Amino acid sequence: MRNVFLLLLCLLPCFVLAQPPNTKQAIDLYKQAYGLFESPNANSMTDSLAYVKFNQAKRLYEASGKFDKNYADIFLKLGTIQETENNYSEAIKYYKSSLPIWEKLHSESIKKEGHFLAYVLIGQAFYKSEQYDSAIFFGQKAEHILPSNSHFIDNVQLLYNIMGAIYFKNGDFKQSIFYWEKGFNAANNQKHRHPQQLCSYQLNIASAASSLGEYQKALKSYRQALQYNYVPEIIHRKIGEVYLKRNRPDSALHYLQKAALPDNPENRIVVWNHLGNLYTQRKEYAKALSYYNQSIELNTKQFRANTILAASHLSIGQVHEAQQQFPQALADYQTALQKLHFTFKSSDIYQNPQDFDNAVSKLD
Q1: N-to-C CA span, the chain
Q2: Is residue 323 scored above 90 in pLDDT?
Q3: Would you call 214 exposed, middle or buried from its count of C-beta atoms within 10 A (0-12, 13-18, 19+)?
Q4: Based on CB atoms within 10 Å of each CB, which residue in 81, 167, 231, 322 is the most buried?
């Protein structure tokens, strides 16, 4: 299955009786390439074969002078194959090359739908290459010509997902909520709903609301996400995090303990850090250190997630500092610093790195 989330036109060729040889050969090659492209077992080899056949079909179309929706679709498929290889600039060139072909088609509805698909895919490629202004530009062009045909609902949702994600990354959380709510409504109005998809929308909305400090809205979305029975341990953790931000430790404890129950080690190392923070706030330092150390032990064995390790050591240092164990606190902070830096290994607190170009991440 395609790892690029799109629904292209179902454009299997229609045969008429007397076609020029180039056109018939082009259609035959398109059919062969399309079969490879949409294969349930698609891989890099089938993509390479499809790429060759699509290009052969393209050359025959060029020689025939014929313009139809299959010809335009070839450019979308070639772009998608490039995109799966992370060749975003080449993908964008192919997507843009489809636009003048769509423009030459007689059917206004197909012309509009073709432009919509191309704009969405161009926006997606710009988004993946972190060219967000260009992604928004083409996303807005797509938004202005939304097709009414329900066959394009996946592409409409892709558009809303991309726009929401861009605005979230740019810190415009209200606008990200606007688009994710539109995506949720579009998905929720379908006859065949996908619980995982609906849950993901609510998680995104909740995350943006929490970033705005709109904790009631965030909690409402998290609770709505719970009803889809997808990753409940992560949702419980997120609810616990909101209650921690609202300084409601009892409610936070309830949800964090629920989040720690399922066998999800990657989630558990974060939950244990949160529980450590909660008990640190309560000045129950023995319990706090126990949770931090459990997180470090599991993380070291299975993940080596350096940012989380650094957070654990930093928090342990804060506990030791609160207990006035200052030499131990300094050693803990030094260890946290080492986890954030790929090359810094010194245990001497007076030998900090000269720069942080090799830092893994920053701590909140």
Answers
A1: 38
A2: yes
A3: middle
A4: 81
pLDDT of residue 304: 86
Q: Which residue has the higher pLDDT, 129 or 189?
A: 129
CA distance 120 to 118: 5
Torsions phi, psi for 107 (to 5 deg): -75, 120
Residues 6+ apart with CB under 8 A from 158: 5, 6, 120, 124
At 256, give phi and psi (nearest 5°): -70, -35
Amino acid at 270: V
Q: What is the CA radius of gyration of the chain?
A: 26
Quote the tokens at residue 64: 């025939």
Distances (CA, A) of 21 to 74, 107, 130, 335: 19, 25, 43, 72
Distance CA 141, CA 73 (A): 19
Residue at 207: amino acid letter: S
- The SS3 call for residue 194 is coil
Residue 129 token pair: 């290459």
- β-bridge partners, 359: 341
How far apart CA 160 and CA 44 sit, in angstroms, is 29
Q: Is the pLDDT of residue 15 over 50?
A: no
